[in-house]
Amino acid sequence: MSQLRFAVLGAGHGGMAMAGHLGCMGYSVRLFNRSEARLIPIRNAGGIELSGVVEGKGPVELVTSDIAEAVRDADVLMVVVPASGHRYLAAELAPHLRDGQAIILNPGRTGGAFEFRQVFKEAGVHQEVLLGEAQTLLYACRNTNPGQVKVFGIKNSVPLAALPGHQTVDLLERIHPVFPQFVPGDNVIKTGLDNIGAVFHPALMVLNAARIESTRGEFQFYFEGITKAVAQVLERVDAERVAVAAALGIRAMTAREWLYMAYDAHGKTLYQAIRNNSGYKGIQAPATIDHRYLWEDVPMSLVPIASIGETLGVATPTIRHLIGLAGLMNECDYWREGRTVERMGLAGLTQKQIRHIALEGF
Amino acid sequence: MSQLRFAVLGAGHGGMAMAGHLGCMGYSVRLFNRSEARLIPIRNAGGIELSGVVEGKGPVELVTSDIAEAVRDADVLMVVVPASGHRYLAAELAPHLRDGQAIILNPGRTGGAFEFRQVFKEAGVHQEVLLGEAQTLLYACRNTNPGQVKVFGIKNSVPLAALPGHQTVDLLERIHPVFPQFVPGDNVIKTGLDNIGAVFHPALMVLNAARIESTRGEFQFYFEGITKAVAQVLERVDAERVAVAAALGIRAMTAREWLYMAYDAHGKTLYQAIRNNSGYKGIQAPATIDHRYLWEDVPMSLVPIASIGETLGVATPTIRHLIGLAGLMNECDYWREGRTVERMGLAGLTQKQIRHIALEGF
User: Do B197 and B68 reside in the same domain of the chain?
Assistant: First the structure.
C-alpha cells in the first residue's frame, strides 16, 4: 500500500498537533484553515514544532486557506475544528470530494457524521467517500507560541465509527497504520452519545457562571465547581443522555463508569467518583463563559441529544434547562444555532429508521 | 373603638418580632406555634425582648401550640410563617374562625390569600372573615437568643391587599391604628406579582449553588453572585413575571424599578442598577442551599407565577428552568409541592374570572 496523503482541516490547537504529528511521522500533510491569520506563522516557520510527548518539527507540505487545494490529492481528510464549524466545513468540502477519500471528524461531538452526511446529501455529493467520527480528540495539547504546539498526551484508545457503521472496519483499516490508537466504535450513535463532555461542561459552566465571571476562573473547576447539589444535576443530565441512547438501542457508558474507566476513580455515586478523581486536581475553571464548553458543547452536544430525545419521545427536561439558561447567558438561541434532528437529517424518523441509517446507510 | 386583640401565628424571627412589638405597644397578643420547642423560652421569659429600632420587653398573654386557644378571642390574626406553611395553617384555622375576624398574611408571597381562600372553601368555612396579604414582612429582624429578637428596621410602607380587593379599605381601616406602615395594595394579584424575591432568590441560589456549598456562603451574594451572565437570567425571570402580571391586567413593578424605589439604585440595565446598589454591599450568601430562598421562594413564588402563566397562555421558560434545577438540587418536586393554580382555586379560569375573584369575590 502506498503512503497515505493527509489533509488536516483546521489549524487550532488540535489541528496543529495532528498536522505536526503526521509531518513528524513522515506523512505528506496539507493544512487548511478558513482564516489566513492562523496560517501565516506556520507558513513562515515551514512547519509545526512539537514539544511534550512528541518532539520535533513536522513539515507541512502546503498551508492554505483554499480548501480545494488542501484536499485535492488527499486520501484522508482529518477534520479538527469545533463541531460548530462542521456544517460550514462540510458545505465547503462538498464540491471538492473524490471517490475513495476518507473523512474523519476529530471528534464529532453528538451527530457530527450525521450532519456531514446531510450536508453532502443536500449538496448532491455522489462521490463514494468513507465518513466517520472519533469519539474524542487524540491529543491533549495547546498551541503555545506561533507555530508551536505542546502535546501533553496522546490517548491510548479512541473509538472511531463510520457512517454507515458497516464501513467502520474499512475506515479503521485505512487509518490504523498511522494511528493505532483508533479502536472500533460500533457506530456513530454510540460515538455520538458516549459524549461525557456533554454531561460535565455545560452544567458546570452554567451553575458556576457567576463565580467564573467574578473570579475569572480562579477556582478548581471540578472540585469546587461540583458540589452535592451540582452533582444531582449532573446525574440527571447523564441519565437523560443514557436514556436517549437506550431509545436508540445503545447501552451508553454512564459518566460514573467513564470516570472509573478513564481515571480509575470510583464511588457509589457520581459525586463520590468525582471527589475520588485525582485527575481533576488543580484543573482551574475557564476564565470566561465565552468558552467552547458553552458555545460548542451546548449546540453540538446537548441540543442534538435533546432533539433526538424529542423525536423518540424521551423527555430531557434537565438538558433543556441547561440549553435555555446557557443561551440566556451567552445571548444565543442555541436551539436555532444547534444541531437538531433536521440538521442531522433525522427529523421525523423512528428508532428503527435512525438505526438503519447509522448501521446500514440509506 | 375598643382595643384590638391579636393572635400572631408563627414564632420564627418575624412572628416573634411582631408579637413582641404588639406587646410593647400595649396590645393583647397571643402567640401560636406548631411546635412547642420555639415557645418554651418565650413562655419562660414571660414575653419577648426586643432590641434595635424597637427596645423593650413585649408581654405575651398566651404562648401556645393550641391554635383554637390562640385565635378564640382575637380580632386580628397575623400569619407570620413561611408561605410553604400556609396551606397547613389555613386548614388548622378553618374550624376555629369567627365572623368578623381579620387574617393578614405577612407576607403572602405569590397567591397566599388565594390559597387560604381555597382551603377555607374546601373546609366549608361560612364565617365572614376579612382576608388579606402584605406584600412583604414589616420587619427586618433576627431571633438572636431564646426569647430575644433584634429588629434592624421596620419598613415605612408595605402594600396590603384584601381578597376580594374591594375589602382592602376595610382591612386597612382595621389595622391602620396599629400599623400605619400598611398602605393600600390594590388587590392580591398586585401584591402577589410584585414579588421581587421571586426574581432574585431562586436564580441566585441555583446559579451559585456550587460556590455556596464549597465556601459555605463566603462571598458577597449580590455583588459576586450576580455577574453579567447571571443578570441576563434575572432579566428574563423578571420579564416573565411582569408578562404574567400583564396578562392579568396588572402593571407590575420591574426589578429595576424596584431597585430604584427601594434603594435609589439606578442603571440602564438591571445589572447596572444592581452594581450601583450600595445596599447590597456586605451581604453574604446563605451558608447552604437548604434555605428558604429555595424551599419557600421556588414553590410559593416561582411555581404560582409559572402556573398562572400556563393557565393564561404566557410562556415562562426561564422560571421553569429554575424550578427544575432547584428541585434537582434540593431533591424535591417543587411542582408537586408548590402553589399551582389548582391549590389557589384558579385552575381553568380565564383572565376575567381570576380578576373577578381577586377584585369582587365569588
Answer: no
Beta-carbon separation of B318 and A325 below 8 A:
yes
ipTM here: 0.90
Residues B205 and B222 in one domain: yes
Closest CA to A231 of A277, A286, A283: A277
Q: From residue A139, give the alpha-carbon distance in Å to each of A150, A155, A181, A297, B208.
A: 10, 6, 11, 18, 33
Q: Region B132-144: what's the mean pLDDT?
A: 93
Q: Which of B:262-321 have CB within 8 Å of A? A: 289, 317-318, 320-321
User: Which triple of cell numbers denotes residue A5?
Assistant: 496523503
To the nearest whole angstrom, how far is the Cα of A93 from the nearest Cα of chain B?
36
Condensed to tens digits (0 to 9), the pLDDT of residues A65-122 reads 999 999 999 999 999 999 999 999 999 999 999 999 999 999 999 999 999 999 999 9
Q: Are residues B18 and B145 in the same domain?
A: yes
Question: Is B211 within 8 Å of A210 when comparing Cβ atoms?
Answer: yes
Q: Which domain holds residue A314?
A: 193-360
Inter-chain residue contact B224 with A208, CB threshold 8 Å:
no
Question: How many domains does one find in chain A?
Answer: 2
Chain B contacts of A232, Cβ < 8 Å?
328-329, 331
Choosing among B199, B205, B213, B214, which should be mutated to test the A contact, i.e. which has the most A CBs within 10 A? B214
Cell 438561541 maps to which residue? A333
- Which chain A residues are closer than 8 Å to B289 by Cβ? 229
* Cross-chain Cβ contact A328/B236 below 8 Å: yes
CB contact (8 A) between residue B209 and residue A226: no
One domain for residues A35 and A51: yes
Rounded to the nearest angstrom, the minimum Cα separation between B89 and chain A is 30
Q: What is the rounded distance in angstroms from the CA atom of residue B281 to the CA atom of residue B290?
A: 23
CB contact under 8 A, B209 and A210: no
Grid coordinates representing A269 are 455515586
Q: Does B8 touch chain A (CB under 8 A)?
A: no
3 state SS of A50: strand
Amino acid B102 reads A
Which pLDDT score is estimated for A1?
41
pLDDT at B1 over 60: no
Phi, psi (deg, nearest 5) at residue A106: -120, 85
CA B35 to chain centre: 21
Residues of A whose CB is below 8 A from B207: 206-207, 209-210, 325
Q: Whose CA is closest to A78, among A30, A35, A141, A120?
A: A30
How high is the mean pLDDT of chain A?
95
Annotated catalytic residues of B are 201, 297
d(CA A230, CA A209): 13
Where does a domain end: B132, B167, B187? B187
Please give the single-letter amino acid code of residue B148: Q
Q: What is the pLDDT of residues B145-169, one digit of tens each?
A: 889 999 999 998 999 999 999 999 9
